[in-house]
Write a structure and sequence with these properties.
The structure is a single chain. By secondary structure, the protein is of the alpha+beta class. The protein is globular and about 45 Å long. It contains 4 helices and 4 strands; from the N terminus they run H-E-H-E-H-E-H-E. The longest helix is centred in the first third of the chain and has 14 residues. It is 26% helix and 21% strand. The protein has a 4-stranded mixed beta sheet.
């Protein structure tokens, strides 16, 4: 974080792809709070699964020799806003939201809420930029 902090006040975009699911909720919460304190105004974009998708993923892992397990999923993305002052959800989208031609045959699944919300991308602003 120190290496990134030295470039302030430039905007900071943090990306976490297939990372946070492997942490416990308290670890994710702590990370969001630390990032908000150390890099105020930064934006965080990450993917996260629903609890249902975590269970399905862990069933898969249980049948392999991998010891990895998913530990955290999102049921309500607005709950993350309560973890630290100034943390705000900017956007969320999923793989069924866009008219991707390769997914045309699967687009009907977007009408089934628990499937449409299985894996989504979340975009948060972490507080206000230090001025």
């Amino acid at each position: 974080m120190e290496a990134v902090s030295c470039h302030r006040p430039r905007p900071v975009l943090l990306l976490a792809e297939v990372v946070l699911e492997y942490l416990a909720e308290e670890q994710v919460k702590s990370l969001v709070q630390i990032l908000r304190d150390k890099l105020p105004g930064a934006e965080l974009v990450f993917d996260a699964c629903s609890p249902l998708d975590l269970r399905i993923g862990n069933l898969y892992y249980a049948r392999t020799e991998l010891s990895a397990r998913f530990r955290w999923g999102i049921t309500n993305e607005h709950r993350i806003e309560s973890w630290a002052d100034g943390v705000r959800l900017l956007d969320t989208w999923g793989w069924l939201d866009c008219p991707e031609p390769r997914l045309a045959r699967l687009r009907w699944l977007r009408h089934i809420p628990f499937i449409a919300r299985m894996v989504r991308i979340y975009h948060f602003r972490l507080g206000d930029a230090a001025g």
